[in-house]
Specification:
The chain is an alpha/beta fold. The protein has 2 domains: about 350 residues, Alpha-Beta Barrel (TIM Barrel), CATH 3.20.20; about 55 residues, no CATH class. It has 16 helices and 12 strands. It has an 8-stranded parallel beta barrel, surrounded by 5 helices. It has a two-stranded antiparallel sheet with strand order 1-2. Strands 7-9 form a two-stranded antiparallel ribbon. Strand 5, helix 6 and strand 6 form a beta-alpha-beta unit. Helix 3 packs parallel to helix 5, helix 6 runs parallel beside helix 7 and helix 11 packs across helix 12. The structure holds D-xylose (XLS) and calcium ion (2 copies). One calcium ion (CA) binds next to loops.
């Protein structure tokens, strides 16, 4: 086996809450049964390529701060190979089952369409080997349709059909590679599928082109026999001012309009939920209710910064509420929790990458255990049921009967001289129940 950048780091294992070892899991005990299922099978954790191995620690004011050998020179074939080797070895050391990538994360830079395809194909051959060698699997793949200057006005919503066609080539290859590598999902985050100013934008044309693109992707998925899920990742803005995939509810409206509501689900990111002005658990609850919860990008924003800081999850409280919604949804089928998160740019040691993941893994595992307690204790569920019980009674049934009119309901209210009694919503009691775990 070749030597990789992370050779000096230990393998991470569960040691329990009494452990003094920083490089160990305290809560994530992969074989522990939670509601009849192993923790590892519940949580299906993934490490992302882009933040953890590609991002050099740069920001808009400064250059990269990390010393990674594959960043020393150009991103050529040799550098890309070293990076892939390091990445898969790292995921194995963390003992997490999955990883995720964009096409450009795993390959050498290439300008022409022919070189791009060749470089990506080489990367995919190598990844197939590495997956076997390290016993890791692909949670999802995605094509990057936002970094290259050609995509400055988007991929599927670009005013230029030639850019659209370039995007089609990338997505075809990346979808086929995801299928070949045993990927469980294929993600489309519409990074630049939005616009900056209405003065130069035809919203109708852009949305129809985007709808057409998605239909073509779904059609191709069926043609090649890929049985993973196609997922849209909502985000309200950044980089564009207005994005067509703002949040779960607007994505659902989009899917309905283009006839895709049974074909496409969502990949919900915690930080994108909060950027949209929602609680993370709201987005999960909405996706559950609409039947489109696919997968989750696990991270957090910063309560004082209004942008996508992509930090590692560290709030057990936030993740308890999230995991409650997630368990109510029945958990994942093809999805998983992907750490779309980056250590801060002053966290320059390789070990910091491990500490970030360990913290995120334990936060989510602990949230899961708390949510299990809340569900088995049953107080919240029973209270919710009781709050809506009237809908099972005669009036609730009558309101929903297909031949009932608005006048029928109104007449009932008048005839029965209805005087509804107010009942407490008991929010503080609910919050106290959560805090007890
Ligand atoms: C950016 C997104 C991106 C997607 C994959 O904000 O989170 O990383 O997850 O393209
Ligand atoms: Ca994401
Ligand atoms: Ca993000």
């Amino acid at each position: 086996m070749s030597t990789t950048f992370f050779d000096d780091l230990p393998s991470i294992r569960f040691e329990g809450t009494d452990s003094e070892n920083d490089l160990a899991y305290r809560w994530y005990d992969k074989d522990r049964l939670v509601m009849g299922k192993r923790m590892e099978d519940h949580l299906r954790f993934a490490v992302c390529m882009w933040h953890t191995f590609c991002w050099p620690g740069s920001d808009v004011f400064g250059a990269g701060t990390f010393d990674r050998p594959w960043h020393a020179g150009a991103n050529d074939a040799a550098a890309a190979r070293t990076k892939r080797e390091a990445a898969l070895a790292f995921v194995e050391k963390l003992d997490l089952p999955f990883y995720c990538f964009h096409d450009v994360d795993v390959m050498a830079d290439a300008e022409t369409i022919g070189d791009f395809r060749a470089s990506f194909a080489e990367a995919v051959d190598h990844l197939e080997e590495l997956q076997g060698q390290h016993g890791r699997r692909l949670l999802w793949g995605t094509a990057n349709l936002f970094s290259h200057p050609r995509y400055m006005a988007g991929g599927a919503t670009n005013p230029d059909p030639e850019v659209y066609a370039w995007a089609a080539s990338q997505v075809r290859d990346c979808l086929e590679a995801t299928h070949r590598l045993g990927g469980q999902n294929y993600v489309l985050w519409g990074g630049r599928e939005g616009y900056e100013t209405i003065l130069n934008t035809e919203i109708g044309t852009e949305m129809d082109n985007f709808g057409r693109f998605l239909n073509l992707v779904v059609d191709h998925k069926h043609r090649i026999g890929f049985d993973g899920a196609i997922l849209i990742e909502p985000k309200p803005h950044e980089p564009t001012k207005h994005q067509y995939d703002f949040d779960t509810q607007s994505v659902y409206a989009f899917l309905k309009r283009y006839g895709l509501e049974d074909e496409v689900k969502v990949n919900i990111e915690a930080n994108h939920a909060t950027l949209a002005g929602h609680a993370f658990e709201h987005e999960l609850a909405m996706a559950r209710t609409l039947g489109i919860l696919g997968s989750v990008d696990a991270n957090r924003g910063d309560p004082q910064n209004g942008w996508d800081t992509d930090q590692f999850p560290n709030s057990v409280e936030e993740w308890t509420l999230a995991m409650l919604e997630w368990l109510r949804a029945g958990g994942f089928t093809t999805g998983g929790f992907n750490f779309d998160a980056k250590v801060r740019r002053q966290s320059i040691d390789p070990q910091d990458l491990m500490l970030g993941h360990i913290g995120g893994v334990d936060t989510i595992a602990r949230g899961l255990l708390n949510a299990e307690k809340l569900l088995s204790d049953g107080k919240l569920e029973a209270f919710r049921e009781e709050r809506y019980a009237g809908w099972q009674d005669d009036l609730g049934q009558m309101i929903h009967a297909p031949d009932t009119s608005l006048a029928d309901i109104a007449d009932h209210a008048v005839k029965a001289d209805l005087a509804p009694q107010r009942k407490s919503g008991r929010q503080e009691w609910c919050e106290n129940i959560v805090n007890r775990v």
